[in-house]
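FAQ: What does the model actually see?

It sees only this:
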Amino acid sequence: EVYQKQKALLDKFACSEYKSILGLMEQHCGYSATNIPQQQDISDFLSRRTGFRLRPVAGLLSSRDFLNGLAFRVFFSTQYIRHHSVPLYTPEPDICHELLGHAPMFADPDFAEFSQEIGLASLGASDDDIKKLATCYWFSVEFGLLKENGALKAYGAGTLSSYGELEYSCAPYRPAGGTDDKPEYRPWDPYKACKQEYPITTYQPIYYVAESLVCSTMMYNLLCVCA
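And it is asked to produce this:
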């Protein structure tokens, strides 16, 4: 149910890099509406593409431990799935979020480099800097948007795996059942994003929009150098 619902919206609102990779993962990793693919098959696919690997964990890690893994191109992935009574909602990251949101983007070279840069910056960082890096991660890897032919497209896993927020963040209109409040869109700037507060139980009121995935990487490299 999750896959069928999300696939229709991804065709409209996901960035082109994501859509091309999702097609490859359907061919090589067993992605489909009738099958939950094995994490080992996905990890092998990512390793061949960008050197990233999935490492299963039982639950959420600290920001420091999670970000440190990215430095070595390791993504810590949960294994549990949301309860079948609420297929379109989960209060915390589950396998639908990990495999539909995160995994495909790690197969893109620019996104993989960007993610690793965040991880490298976290090695030996102070607690205050870890918080800033985790916040940059939130507004990019989790809820980042980019411009594609003049339209907003999602590359962040939080939006890519949420049928409600994907439409809310990228559609030029308010989805049925939504509020009259429109989100605020800001240019991607890690210096400002790292200080921005954000909610974790509602749609994001603020999204940072990059010009492209390459632009995101270049800007984050600048942050690391200046830091």
